[in-house]
Each structure stands twice: as C-alpha cells, then as structure tokens.
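User: If you would, consider this record:
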Amino acid sequence: MKKINTRFITRTALIAAIYAALTYAFAWMSYGQVQFRVAEILVLFAFIEPKYGLGLILGCVLANIGSPLGVIDVVVGSFATFVAIAFIVVVRKTLGFGKKSLLIASLGPVISNALFVGAELTYLFQTPFIWNAIYVAIGEIIVVTIAGTAVVTAVMKNNNLVEKLYIN
C-alpha cells in the first residue's frame, strides 16, 4: 500500500484553504445566479498536477458551507467540481500537456457548472434552466477559460515552476 506523503497532505490542505479563502474574499460575486468565482481559476491547476483535485473539491466544500444557497450548494457545487476535474484530467491524459489541450480542458468546468449549478438554481429559484445555465457558463468562461487559461499558460511556460508544482 502506498503511503500518503506529507507533501500531498500539505498541498491538498493549502489548495483547499486558498480556494475557500478566495471564494469568501469575493463572496459578493461567488454565489447566486450570476457568479464569477475567482477561485475557479485554481481548478485548472489539476491540468498541471491531477493530485490537486482532492484539495480543489475540499476547497469547494469549505467555500460552499458559507453559501447563502444552503447545504444543497455544498453537495451540487462540489459534485460539479468533481466532474470538472475528472474532465480536465482525462483531457490532459488524452491530448497531452499543451495550450490547445488546456483550452479544451477549461471547458469541463464551464459545462459541468452550467449543467449542475444551473439545475440547482432552477430548483431553488424556480427560474428557467436555460438562463441559469447560460449565466453560470458565462461566469465560468470568463474566470476559467479566459483568466484561468492565461494564468496556467504562464505557469506552464516556466518549467522550473511546473516541476515544483508536481507532487511526487
């Protein structure tokens, strides 16, 4: 059986804490029908190191504990993050480590959150699913596909930094 190393535990906790802290710091735009969750940029770090996935999911759980939408947001939002990370990891394994595959991987969080969080908002607010999905997708495109890919592309250009981000 493989031992869980200190680096993995530390990085998982750090990623979770940063995700939650960013969400709370920008709470005014992190929850609701129209949302721009800055912390979602971090989801693309699973493209560089898939082991960050656990910390990202835990961070989403912690962030959504404070959600004005209640417990349903903890469950649905965290599941959407899980699906998004799974998509990102599959794209990375299938298409490799490049800018084009990163751009494709960034669509996982857009689609996952649009579908799951869009459905959650429809249930909570009794508003049309299509509009909820579109609003959530727009926020995700701006934060993840535009800002997130710019940040992660810059990180990917620095081989030394990429090496330090790996968890062995």
Summary: Residues 129-156 form the longest helix (28 residues). The domain at 6-165 is CATH 1.10.1760 (Arp2/3 complex 21 kDa subunit ARPC3).
